[in-house]
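Exercise: predict the fold of this chain.
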Amino acid sequence: MQTVRDSEELTRRLAGLRRNGTIALVPTMGALHAGHLALIAEARRHADAVVATIFVNPTQFNDPADLARYPRDEMRDAELARAAGVDLLFAPAPEEVYPPGFATTVEVARLSAPLEGAMRGPEHFRGVATVVTKLLNMVQPDDAFFGQKDAQQALIISRLVRDLDIPARIEICPTVREADGLAMSSRNVRLDPESRRRAPAIARALHDVEARVAAGERDMRRVIDAARSILTEARIDPEYFEAVSADTLDPVAHLGDRTLVAIAARVGDVRLIDNVIVSPPTAP
C-alpha cells in the first residue's frame, strides 16, 4: 500500500492503478473500525484497486471542540487499511483540500435540511457535500462506498452524484454493529464505561420499532412513542427520533414502502446516530 498526501502525486499513482482495471473509493475520516473495514472488503469485491481516504473534514463540524476531540491515529489507520487490502491511501492536509482562496461549496437542497441538518446547521452537509465532491473528482473512481449508519449523508451523496453527473456508482453498505447492537462509530471510543453501557439502548429502540412494524403496526407515531420508553429507561433523551421517507426525508405518519426511522442522541458527552429502514411486511 502506498500513502500519498498531495493531489499531483495522487493523480500519478491513480494513472497506474487505472491501467490495471477499475477503482473503488472508500472515503473516511480515520479512526477506522470494523464498519470501515467492511466497506473496504466490499470495495475489494467490486474493483481491481481500492483507494481509501483519511481526512477529518473541518468544514462539516459546527462545533470546534468536536473537531478537536475527533479521534486521530493515522499510523494505526494505515496498518488496518493495508491489512484490509487498500492499494492507495490518500491522507491530505486541510490546505491540500482547501487551498488558499478556496471559495466554492456544494449544497443539496431539501435533503440537507431535516434531521442532522436541523441539529447541526446548514454548514454541516454543505461541508460533507463539498468534500465528497472534491474527493470523487480527485480520485474519479468507478464505485464509491458509504455506510447506511449515515443514512442522510448517503442519500445526499447519491443525489449530488446524480444531479452533477459525476460518473461514479454510489454503493451503500449495511450498518455494522457491536455484539450488543451499538452501531460502530469512530466516536464510540470516547464513551466512558457508564455511557457505553447505556448506549446500546439506541439500537434496542430501533429494534423495537422493527418488531412493532413486523407485528402489523402502521401508525409511526405510536411506534416511536412506544420505543421511546426504552431510551427513557436508559436515561437517553434523543435530539430527534423520527420517521421519514427513506427517499425524500419528508415526515411519515403512516408506514410507507421505505420508511427511515432515525435517532440522534448524546450519551454522556458523545453524540451518536443510528437508523433502520422499515417497510410493510410482504404477504406470504
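Check your answer against the key: The radius of gyration is 19 Å.
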